């Protein structure tokens, strides 16, 4: 017997239940040229009782809501959330003064969140500086992440946790200076 995933098995179960509730003959009539009178008689006749089904296993929910995909943020909502997230973290950041002769360092930090906005694991600096003179800047970025924890996630974004549970933030000192 073939193995099906839960959504496919759920759809098959719904189709079978639909066929037994509405009558197999109504869904797939044997004779397409049935007279109108015969159709009316069939509609007036008591519907056949479906055979007693075996009780469903407790781990196999039959609800159709489980088949639907969760809602996703629109691209505009995603951009708005990313802008809010960046603005919030940059407001917590006090960049260390950059060395006069060093290149611009834009730190990138990978974050993993819990649904309440707290960090589910420590932040990870994706691009640590190779120049020792820039290490204080990297340290100030990690301190900003700690100072902002937990984030007060706005209510309109909470239902979309799966889309924001991991994020990367860029800490650009030129953006903060504006």
Q: Which features characterize this protein?
A:
elongated; 178 residues; mainly alpha; 3-stranded antiparallel sheet; single chain; 2 domains; 3 strands; 8% strand; 7 helices; Fusion Protein Consisting Of Minor Coat Protein, Glycine Rich Linker, Tola, And A His Tag, Chain: A, Domain 2
Short description:
With 178 residues, the chain is mainly alpha-helical. It has helices at residues 6-22, 24-27, 36-44, 75-92, 135-147, 161-164, 173-177, and strands at 107-112, 124-125, 166-171. The chain contains 7 helices and 3 strands, in the order ααααββααβα.
Uncertain spans = 4-35
**CATH architecture name of the largest domain:** 2-Layer Sandwich
Number of domains: 2
What is the CA-atom radius of gyration, in angstroms? Answer: 29 Å
- By secondary-structure content and strand pairing, the structural class works out as mainly alpha
- Helix/strand order: HHHHEEHHEH
Q: Quote the average pLDDT.
A: 76
- Number of DSSP-assigned strands: 3
Range of strand content: 5-15%
Spatial strand sequence of the major β-sheet: 2-1-3
Helical amount: 25-40%
Query: Number of helical runs?
Result: 7
Instruction: Compute the separation of the termini in Å.
Output: 65 Å
The coarse overall form would be elongated
* The CATH top-level class label of the largest domain: Alpha Beta
CATH fold naming of the largest domain: Fusion Protein Consisting Of Minor Coat Protein, Glycine Rich Linker, Tola, And A His Tag, Chain: A, Domain 2
Q: Could you describe the largest sheet, including whether it forms a barrel?
A: 3 strands, antiparallel
């Amino acid at each position: 017997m073939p193995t099906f995933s839960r959504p496919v098995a759920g759809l098959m179960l719904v189709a079978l239940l639909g066929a037994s509730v509405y009558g197999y003959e109504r869904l797939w009539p044997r004779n397409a040229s049935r007279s109108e009178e015969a159709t009316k008689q069939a509609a007036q006749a008591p519907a056949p009782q479906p055979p007693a089904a075996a009780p469903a296993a407790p781990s196999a929910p039959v609800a159709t809501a489980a088949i639907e995909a969760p809602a996703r943020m629109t691209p505009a909502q995603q951009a708005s959330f990313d802008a809010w997230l960046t603005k919030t973290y940059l407001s917590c950041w006090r960049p260390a003064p950059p060395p006069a002769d060093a290149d611009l360092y834009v730190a990138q930090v990978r974050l993993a969140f819990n649904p309440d906005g707290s960090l589910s694991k420590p932040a990870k600096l994706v691009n640590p500086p190779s120049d020792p003179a820039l290490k204080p800047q990297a340290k100030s970025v990690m301190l900003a992440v700690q100072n902002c924890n937990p984030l007060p996630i706005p209510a309109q974004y909470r239902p979309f946790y799966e889309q924001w549970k991991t994020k990367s933030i860029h800490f650009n000192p030129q953006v903060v200076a504006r």
